[in-house]
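Late entry, written up from scratch paper. The run itself happened at the end of the previous shift, but nothing got recorded in the book at the time, so transcribing now.
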Amino acid sequence: MAQEKRPDIKTLTSGVGLKRWYWLKSELLAEARRLGLKTTGQKFAILDRIAHFHDTGSKIAPTDVAPKTSSKFDWHCAELTPDTALTDSYKNTQNVRRFFKSQVGDTFKFNIEFMAWMKNNTGATLADAVAEYMAMKLREADPEYESMIAHHNQFNQYTRDFLGDNPRMGLSDVRHFWALKRALPSDDGRHVYERSDLDLI
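Output as recorded:
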């Protein structure tokens, strides 16, 4: 059976068809501009926006509508203390950064895992957040610790998984098999490493 080839993005007219394939962000940006859609946001937000347009004809995707917040707390300038509770209006501001530096030292940095924790723990206090940050730093000290890779960064995840399974191979091998893998369709447009990838030609 002949291998299915990735179509020209301009020929696709359904969200399902679009999401079967891997697209570079630059390709999605160009298609969004061609269709008169917003081009802001991360790669998968743009992908969802184009898919929604194909399926509904609407240029405004559900993810383009910011959720309403009930809190008016201003994370940019409000006084922050260990007892300050995280609200649904929480933002990673310079004001928050200064608070954490005052608590844990100038080495404090936001990272993907900690930002996700802050976003997902409305009601917890900043004292709880400090404790969680310190716990994360302890985990990072473990020689076997692996940092979180953002969901949208498929290549980095593929690289980690590929090299973990094939320690004698290198980045040139990763790039070779990644190029073959991403040329194939998938159910959701995401491509993850599988040992069978080594059989791709």
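The CA atoms of residues 94 and 103 lie 14 Å apart.
(Scratch paper discarded after transcription.)
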